[in-house]
Amino acid sequence: MTSTRRLFLGAFTAGAVTVVAGPGTASAAEQSGQAEGDVIFEGEVKARSFRTEAGATSTFRTTSTATTTKLHALTAHQVGVAGNGVALNVVSDNPDDSAMYLSGTEKARGTLKISHRGYADASDGGAAALSIYLETTGVVDGSGGTAAQGIFISHTTGPTKGNLITVRNNAVDDFVVKGTGQVGIGVQVGATPRARVEIAQRDSAIGLLMQANADSAGRLVEFRDRAGVAKLRVLNSGALAAQNAQFGVAGAESYGGGDGVIGIRNATTPPTMNPTNGGVLFAEGGALKWRGPAGSVTVIAPA
Question: pLDDT for 132-148, tens place per residue?
């Protein structure tokens, strides 16, 4: 009777075929072909390859609970300092499942932690801690790309409470996507964005810049109401186009039943100082007025 065994290795090194440790030992029952069991190698094992036959699963595991020393179940170490060989290469030809599963039960650590050991002279400018390369099988001329998503984040038990994405590099949350979907750029660490998208200007740089394409007649910005009707547009030329415009933010909109009109609310505080460049247009008591640089107030239209 053939017995399937699990291997417990003191260490595992690829590239050689010599078993350094003594022969493995199995239980008496297994030796007689009556039961499956474990083969234990106390020392280092060197082999050209390690393979699991169909129907069986290989396992590298540790039961260590040490807190002063990290004792890993498996360490893949590329000792070479040149060439193209990597420490771990995971390949799958199965289109019906993932190439690798990774799960954890951490409370204050990342399930996957990537550490790039950088160079003080900035010679690693072309490197990245995480690099994702999407390619399409059979396409070599750039005529078609894969439909696969680069990054996908979802849930299985309801919306998450923690941040979906946090980028923190300048003592603020440079970019954060909250569990609610709200987005913050440059907000305080741990702060909740006050809108669906909040941009906090942190220095003298422009908070938001959009530049028109000289070859396009498309609008730079368009705002629509809940019915999907465009109400405000910033045109390619930079001109502002609105269905209606209301100056003053207190109270409800009031256009007198008109459409394509401009409404000016009564000034909360009418101007009392003379403008130095041009004049000030405002409404007071329902009358349209103009205050010029000499201080004179002209009633353009009575209430």
Answer: 999 888 887 777 889 99
Predicted local distance difference test score (pLDDT) of residue 41:
66
The structure tokens listed for 120 are: 């003080």
Closest CA to 195 of 209, 204, 185, 205: 185
